Every structure is written in C-alpha cells, then in structure tokens.
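Tutorial sheet, problem 5. The two components below are modelled jointly, 223 residues in total.
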Amino acid sequence: DAGVTQSPTHLIKTRGQHVTLRCSPISGHKSVSWYQQVLGQGPQFIFQYYEKEERGRGNFPDRFSARQFPNYSSELNVNALLLGDSALYLCASSKTGGLWGYTFGSGTRLTVV
Amino acid sequence: QKEVEQNSGPLSVPEGAIASLNCTYSDRGSQSFFWYRQYSGKSPELIMFIYSNGDKEDGRFTAQLNKASQYVSLLIRDSQPSDSATYLCAAETSGSRLTFGEGTQLTVNP
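Model answer (structure tokens):
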C-alpha cells in the first residue's frame, strides 16, 4: 500500500508569492492534518480535516488555508509568503482522527527567498 | 509553560545501553501520547502510542505513561547506532491535534 504522498518535495518561492502543497492520504484514511516544522523544532499543528470538514485550526494567520477533496486528498495554500514560512510542511493521515496515531508523509521543503 | 516538554538533549549513550527519553505535558485532557522518531532530513515515523497508565512494550521499545504526574517516557533497550535520531513526544489534545515537544536528539556511539 502506498503511504502518505506529498508533492512537491522541494519548492523555492519568492516573498509575497502564493504556494499550494498537495497531499494524498493512505487509502482508507479519512483524516488529514497539516503541520509546519521549522528546523530544530517539533512540528506545529496547522489544520485538521476529517470527512472533508475542518475539525481544527492551529495558531496560524489567515494567509494559511486548506481544503479536503471528496477523495480525501488535501491542499494547503499559503498566500503572501514570508521568509518565516520557510519550513518542512508535513501532511499526516489517520483512519479515525488520530486515536491510533498519524502517519506522516515525507514532507514538502519550502524555502522562501 | 510549554504544552509538551522533553528533556533537553542531546543524549549520548554507548551501543547496547538503555536510552531513556522523558516528556511532560500540561493538558490533563490529553488521552493519547505518541513517540515519533525523526532521522535528519526525514519526516517523523511513529514508534509507539500509549493511552493507558503503565508500561507498553514493543520489541526493544517501552513506553511508560503516568497521567497523575503528567509524564511520558520512552526506553530503548540494547541501543543501536541506527537508533541515532531525534525523538519527538506528542500529546493528542483538543480537536485530535498532536502537540509536539521540541524533540530530543539521541546519539548511540558504537
């Protein structure tokens, strides 16, 4: 079975630009979460979607948005990029919303210059 | 106070020794706790989860949970150089989100 797949793997953007990151969960998993991991820190929660509905939002500005599609894949959008948005963006999927843990994808490394 | 705090590293142990990683959490509503291993440049990999007080063993790994003390730990027995990584403790908080500690870097020396 394929794991959680994320695309692209690496991305370089200029300040002020917009970026879209994509995630496909493990087959059968209905919950997708997004995390931001800055170098040297633990991942920070951004969003959780379950059955296509937003179930949680972390302490991130409105420049960050996300959605989940009928096939349970998800997109994370970030507008007006700042240098501080440079990080590893992780997508995690779970069957039921996290009781048995989340499986992370390999991540998208975003660099804002 | 951080929601999840891990013992500051880095931690260095010789091959074959027991590595002990500790974590405390502040939200008494947290029910499930997770240990992830993250190799440099890679994404976190789930090692174990625990939600009942006591010990849970899986091979060389033992997770311990004490809800009264709000304390979670991970023991790695017979540590191997391949165990060298950053270990992340996470608590499942409101909305099924994971709140992570900053991680403890473990080095196992041959």
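Marking note: The interface with chain A takes residues 4, 32, 34, 36, 42-46, 49, 88, 90, 92, 94-103 of chain B (CB under 8 Å). Full credit if you identified this.
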